[in-house]
């Protein structure tokens, strides 16, 4: 098999598995090949499904395909390739320990046995029939994306001026107010790194910033609704859009603290000043070391 031919075949395989358009690229194809432990010259019937972490996946891509991704690409691979593989039933997380803590360095991904059975038949007469069985048993990512595409969206303008569109249900209206009104008022000049709307499909807004901040969110993690970074003061905002009033409780605070770096940080709870449709926004701020001249954050 010639140079690049295996990657092209992997992209076609992802299309046949009905992944989304954002996954039909070389990054996702090489991610899949790494999970299958396949390199140029290998045949599909030799595919394996070991458990691999994101770092091991990137190392395989570098060694087998000569593509050395920068460290900040880890978040892109997680959120724009692996996350969708998991949703499609192509990949599973932590097959060895499903209840592994979300911040564990041992977090891993593995092609499911059902998917591996199909993949090993790729290029043979039996592939189409095996794939049909798989797609009947699993809701494809593309079909889920099509459902969302036909729903009206809530437009949101980020502080950077970039426009995104959120799902119309649940608390998207409140998230819009948090981003467009609360942040400019209380944290002017901040950057939005992450938005998790009702259907949990939007996710990372700025993957490079997430990696720079050292924040890793897994597919099943109880993420905050908005993550924003105030670089001038060194403040990280973990923001919640809630249907009840009051501060973040102890359990939720611990869950949010797991999401972020904790070294040298202090925490405070800051209730939002705006209520939208009986919803309450609460910001949990993690304060690192402010830059010289920046105000000292309150203690809890």
From TrEMBL:
Region of interest called Disordered, as start-end residue ranges on this chain: 281-300
Residue span(s) of domain BsuBI/PstI restriction endonuclease HTH: 6-137
Molecular function GO labels: DNA binding; magnesium ion binding; type II site-specific deoxyribonuclease activity
EC number: 3.1.21.4
Superkingdom of this protein's organism: Bacteria
Top enzyme category: hydrolase
BsuBI/PstI restriction endonuclease domain: residues covered: 155-257
Keyword DNA-binding included in the entry's annotation: no
One GO process term, biological-process aspect: DNA restriction-modification system
Keywords attached to this entry: Endonuclease, Hydrolase, Nuclease
Protein name: Type II restriction endonuclease BsuBI
Lineage: Bacteria, Bacillati, Actinomycetota, Actinomycetes, Bifidobacteriales
């Amino acid at each position: 098999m010639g140079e690049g031919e295996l990657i092209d075949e992997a992209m076609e395989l992802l299309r046949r598995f009905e992944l989304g358009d954002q996954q039909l690229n070389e990054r996702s194809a090489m991610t899949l090949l790494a999970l299958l432990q396949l390199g140029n010259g290998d045949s599909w019937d030799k595919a394996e499904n070991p458990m691999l972490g994101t770092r091991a996946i990137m190392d395989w891509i570098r060694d087998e395909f000569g593509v050395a991704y920068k460290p900040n690409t880890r978040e892109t691979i997680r959120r724009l390739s692996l996350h969708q593989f998991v949703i499609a039933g192509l990949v599973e997380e932590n097959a060895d320990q499903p209840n592994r803590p979300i911040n564990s360095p041992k977090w891993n991904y593995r092609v499911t046995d059902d998917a591996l059975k199909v993949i090993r038949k790729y290029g043979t007469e039996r592939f189409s029939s095996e794939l049909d069985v798989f797609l009947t048993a699993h809701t494809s990512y593309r079909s889920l994306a099509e459902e969302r595409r036909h729903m009206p969206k809530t437009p949101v303008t980020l502080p950077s001026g970039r426009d995104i569109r959120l799902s119309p249900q649940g608390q998207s209206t409140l998230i819009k107010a948090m981003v467009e009104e609360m942040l400019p008022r209380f944290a002017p000049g901040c950057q939005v790194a992450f938005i998790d709307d009702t259907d949990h499909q939007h996710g990372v807004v700025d993957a490079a910033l997430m990696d720079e901040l050292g924040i890793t969110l897994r597919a099943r993690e109880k993420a905050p609704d908005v993550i924003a970074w105030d670089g001038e003061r060194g403040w990280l905002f973990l923001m919640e859009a809630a249907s009840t009033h009051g501060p973040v409780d102890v359990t939720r605070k611990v869950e949010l603290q797991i999401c972020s770096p904790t070294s040298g940080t202090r925490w405070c709870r800051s209730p939002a000043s705006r209520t939208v449709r009986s919803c309450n926004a609460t910001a949990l701020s993690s304060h690192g070391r402010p830059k010289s001249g920046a105000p000292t954050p309150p203690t809890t």
